[in-house]
Amino acid sequence: MTKEAQRILIVEDDKSLRTSLTHSLRAEGYHPIEAASVAFGRLQVQESRPDLILLDLGLPDADGMTLLRELRAAGDATPIIVLTARDDEASKVKALDLGADDYVSKPFGLAELFARVRSAFRHRVQVRGSAAVVQVGDVQVDLAQRRATKNAVEVHLSRKEFDLLAELVIRQGQPVAHADLLRAVWGDEN
Ligand code: CA
């Protein structure tokens, strides 16, 4: 059985970086797709249905955050890794709050980027609008709506509590390392 290569959309206006990412991703067995602006990125999301998006923030026509916000508002849960030259904490926090799965700070090494890509794929859940509901015993977790119910009664959770629960139900049945949980829920600062 041959597995179709996972499509990775690279939204990056720096041509040399985009080209080198394309070559490297192809060498790793992925199917890279290029876009040099938010407008082309948007088009490629619709036409190519990427499995993951590498998203630069400083793009010529708009801020990459615009595309991130649009996709998440439309219920699109494609994993997104933000490539940022903005090394300030506020931008990273904003990107994560808007629904980015991860970020890498430029300049980054390819080994690090590939590790982030593999991690994002591991965490991927097939979220398709309202179908993003995971049932574990009598607990139901709606990942898209960020709601949890137990025996149909809503459980009120803080943002972090929900993130922690979501991370565990996504990987139900698998052991989850403490460090992975910290990174997934609290990010890199810990
Ligand atoms: Ca840029």
Describe this structure in words.
The chain has 190 residues and is an alpha/beta fold. It is built from 7 helices and 9 strands. The protein has helices spanning 15-27, 38-48, 64-73, 89-97, 110-123, 159-170, 178-186; strands at residues 7-11, 31-35, 52-56, 80-84, 102-105, 133-136, 139-142, 147-150, 153-155. The strands form 2 sheets. It has a 5-stranded parallel β-sheet, sandwiched between helices. It has a 4-stranded antiparallel β-sheet with strand order 6-7-8-9, covered by helices on one side. β4, α4 (89-97) and β5 (102-105) form a beta-alpha-beta unit. α6 crosses α7. The protein is globular and about 55 Å long. The protein starts with 6 loop residues before the first strand and ends with a helix. Bound molecules: calcium ion. Residues 13-14, 56, 58-59 line the site of calcium ion. Calcium ion binds at residues 13-14, 56, 58-59.
Could you give a short description of this structure?
With 190 residues, the chain is α/β, with parallel strands linked by helices. Helix content is 41%, strand content 21%. It has helices spanning 15-27, 38-48, 64-73, 89-97, 110-123, 159-170, 178-186; strands at 7-11, 31-35, 52-56, 80-84, 102-105, 133-136, 139-142, 147-150, 153-155.
